[in-house]
Predict the 3D structure of the following.
Amino acid sequence: MTRILALVGDCYGGPGGIARYNQDLFEALAEGDADILIVPRLGDATGIALPDRIRQLPPVFGRLAFLFSSLVAAWRHRPVDVVFCGHVYMAPLAWIVARVARARLWVQTHGAETWVGRRNIVRRTIEAADMVTTVSRGTRHILMAWADLAPARVRVLPDTVRDVFQPGPRSPALADRLQLGPGPLLLTVGRLSATERYKGHEQIFAAMPDLRARFPTIVHVVAGSGDDRARLEGRARELAGDTGAVRFLGFVPEEDLLDLYRLADLYVMPSSQEGFGIVYLEAAACGLRVVGGQGGGSGDAVAHEGIGVLVDPEDKNALVEAVTRLLGQGKADQAAVDPYRRSHFAAAARLLLARLQVRPRRIRGGS
């Protein structure tokens, strides 16, 4: 059995794509031969039934407190074979824990945290890792531009689409409750954060007058909450007009998200800096074609015309033409989504762990 100590920003009990990625990864490894203890900075797993061979400690905020808790966890979980670091900013702490535990170090990268090259201790500890995984080829390319890493030590392990995301009938109850009109409906799902303005909401708002000239009842449905919502609502009125062309739904629980995907006609998010863009594939898995943005790792998620197309986020005409064309093309091709299904992801994750374990340790333990 492989014993893994996972140092992460959040996992069970936490929102967002990284928390979900961590859950999918740890469950895939636990279904193999791994026993995993998670030390999170955020996210409370109290009351959540965790899978077999996965445990999660209470969240620990504060750098020194987190380091102390991680070292204690490593001692109690000994012998630790692998220290998993879920974010590059935690790499120095993870390196210390791996050295004390005499374990291999696995560093995970996602997207925006790699856009700017890291210096000094963060870069050096990433370079010292036994293995680095990224969610896309785009992220891998950016990472290797500023970190001195042998290509063999940097592997791509893309996000996975959970099996619940499948094509299905529209929900009349949800349609009645939202009262969005006859459509067509354009959908964007994601946090409305001031730090994530690259997702392209405003570009869609600016395109709505042109789209309404072609589709008079088209509506852009925005699902998500965050500290940038009030500003985005103002921008929607300014750019799209006060005509009901944009509807903000706020936070949508995961149990309602499936029905929301199935209610929409097209998924649109012309993001310029996605690490991968799992929402593109969730939408496609539910039957929606997608319009994504060029830049970052979106090309890995929207890699096939059966899923959708990528446009320059700053080219309004290209966005309008892409939406117009894809609205007439029907459902997404499920065969193009299948390589991202959970069975493929789980097999790839377990293979990476097996390869990591046969490599000599790069980090030597302390005395």
The domain at 2-160+342-358 is CATH 3.40.50.2000 (Rossmann fold). Residues 342-358 form the longest helix (17 residues). DSSP finds 14 helices and 13 strands in the chain. The longest strand covers residues 2-8.
